[in-house]
User: Fold these one by one.
Assistant:
Number 1:
Amino acid sequence: MTVLVLVGVLGLAVFGCVCVVWAERGGPTWVRAVAAVTVGLGKVLQSSGKTRGGSSRGDD
């Protein structure tokens, strides 16, 4: 079950990346919307990683 969830998340990530590239080349409106969501989520995840503080290597 866990493997299926991970494969689904990976599939969504790849789909989002494909939409970002396609939108840069002038894709349809729905592709631009998916690309905007993908970029927005990436920025949210990036900023949440920076605000946690501490080492990302797990050294305590």
Number 2:
Amino acid sequence: MENFAAVEKALRTAAPHELVDIVTAALADHYGARRTQLRLADYAMRSLQAVEPVPLVTEPVPVNGSPQGRAFGAQEPVVTQDPDHGAVEVHLPVTVRGGRMGVLSVTLPENAYTAAVLPEIQHICEVLGHEILVAERDTDLYDLARRAARLTLAAEMQWQLLPGRSCSRPEFSLGAHLEPAYAIFGDNYDWSASAEHLTLTVTNGMGEGIEAALLTNLAVNALRNARRAGLDLQGQAMLADQAVHAQYHGRAHVAVLLLRFDIATGEVEAIDAGSPRLWRLRDGTVDPIPFEQQLPLGMFEDTVYTPQRFTVRPGDRLLIGSDGVYDAASPSGARYGERALARSLTGTRLLPPTQVPGAVLHELAGHHGEVPLEDDALVVCLDWHGRPDGEHRD
């Protein structure tokens, strides 16, 4: 592990834009690597884009149907042989706390590759992922690599709000995705986990473009402000409601579903203040979880919100869909509907939660065909594992 320690130190002291160069040089020195390339997943999660200075000239590779894509999807190393050049190419996922970022591809001489090399390079990938998260504060290099097309200004604002696209802990795993990725309107999601609780929110600000992005930014930051001030779920909803109403005086509002999970017991507090809906897959059966629908945030002054409760068990899968999913229209005008969404949830039951949102939205794309989506389509998938010593009640 001496090689790993040296590379880790070099990465931690490198300039933000030099991380790939540091890894390339280190892998060449310590393992004889002939070539190293870092690719990051684009916003639509359809391609892996090379990290390189502008102008970006390297062609992307698809997530589906490429060795790099297999490593990204399976979150496991993929090794391919190139006997004509006496080389082995290793593709390793770059992931931080369950958040899938991209893939590091390393070309090694055949005589330098052994199975013992993989763990060290995987450790390097972990450190690289952490350092990219830090470096992104000071450089656009990695953000540019995620763009297969130009973002609208509204989408730029919305993506900056998101916590990531996946998160994993021993007690739960979740994944989320927004579509269309490059021209988002007002949909958003947020999560935060502490030692005892997971808070998950899905929001849908009315309107389009910059107006929707500004509204959603206000609501999400108001919810975060209340959560970080230590308010309970009811207090979070009421503070955000007041913030939106104070700014818009009822002319604009935000639909939101707020969930707060007790990690030890699986008990969940929920406030349904709008359109996002929740389904549960348990023991092979899909059921909607109904709530008493309350007023969207900002519609009236001093609205009082009342939490409702339900419980999740280990093995449960929850799926949240925005109205842009279940109300999406086909070319004939038929709505996608809750029944189709339930079928999609059943059909993706063997996929990890990080891949479920993309699979659901792929099926949705087949439904609406060439007809552009009239609204954002947002899907969040949560697998609940629980704690071995937790108490779980129906």
Number 3:
Amino acid sequence: METERPFVLPGDSIDPSLIPVPRQQDAQTQNSKKQAVLRLGPGLRHMAATGAIVPTVPGQLVVDGRKRSMWVESKGGRYVASVGDVVIGQVQRSAGGDLFYVNLSPYTSNAILPHLAFEGASKKTRPQLAPGALVYARVSLANRHMDPELECVSPATGKADGLGPLVGGTVFDVSLGLARRLLMARSREEGQVAVLDFLGDEGLAFETAIGRNGKVWVRSDSIKTMIAVGRALQKTDEDDLSVDDQRKMVKWLIKSMR
């Protein structure tokens, strides 16, 4: 569970006592090597020369001892593509009949999405996406010297697994920190984001897709519902609401809709 949240700045030294170590019983299991791996999330970099772990962005250092993971929770900053991220992008144009250029944020270069990177796509059945169309995709290749590459199909199964064009709905901007928390396993524990669960508990019917690049797509038959979901997300983000405050805010929003 998350235990520490000291504020750190780029270049700070991380107190070694904060770095989670494998439990003694873990070291005795067959998967000891896997369990001993320290996972560094956004905002941290391992310096190979010194072995030090250094923050690259200002924010709160979050340590999850159970999962042996660490990251920096930061509302600001620009999105930097990382392999495995699920993102929401907007098609800018098609190039050469082989790929789409997709915008992920105002501060990054366009990503590349091959026409064949969709479930069941072939030269005859590849999707026709007009400029402005939205896609839910996974980052398959990321290199600081190249444009990131996207895919809308699982390389393991050949299935879309929820990825692909997003039809209808609207997109709301949230911080990168909130986007990451929304993508975590849903939990109503302190420090997590349960606002979407609370909205569903109130009987609102909607679909969402969450992009690690700070985008949330919402679709519903009711415009009021889409607006309510967007307002709830942005309020949670701006005021850093606790789980209890998220519940109270949702109750207030529902009353205001009636």
Number 4:
Amino acid sequence: MDIGLELLAALCALAFLAGFVDAVVGGGGLIQIPALFVLLPGVPPATLLGTNKFASIWGTLTAAVQYLRRVPVEWRATLPTTATALVFGFLGASAAASIPADAIRPLILVLLIAVLAYTLAKKDIGALHAPKLSPRRTQWTALATGAVIGFYDGIFGPGTGSFLVIAFVGLFGFSFLAASASAKLVNVVTNGAALAFFIGAGHVRYDIALPMAAFNVAGSLTGTHMAIRKGSVFVRRLFVAVVGLLILRFAWDLWAT
């Protein structure tokens, strides 16, 4: 299926927006995946997912590098989370065929509403970076966090970046800015594992993915710069907006089915 320049331009514009949002609070897939499915209905779903992963991972990697250079990373929490997220992401992908997505959506919708309510109720949450766990509890909590969110990412996926952000804020006491930095590092590893599968299976349209990747990176650079310059207040506000959109997305999916 060949696509015209106008269609490709629309996909690139949406990739820029997705890269911007994802660099700040995660949730870029909320924009980029529906765009691919709506604008390219003739392309197989697996190829659309692989194309999305290829286009988005470069923006995620760019954001991770920018955060790493400018924001102190709490490695004691980030590394164990990354390790278990990688392992359980693979396990989740393996279990995806046996656990229907329709059985997960209601639970995720409830969790997202709870996350939004908690964030709005706690006006000062994430404003300051104040890790609150002992080194031992940090490691065990990080392992559990990576296992749960990694499994979810493998079996379903939407909103994983936002769940990582709120986990680092709520469980560990990170600021929203520091949480976004750690979430990006985790996402790079887990997305890389998924992309390896899609590339190996031939499920990437490089003629679409490469230009989208360039615009995703541009959006990511813009979003990272704004997040670091404006700080945790800006990140918190965008986080609330993205979680609100995720709630609407899941509610619509439930209503439509």
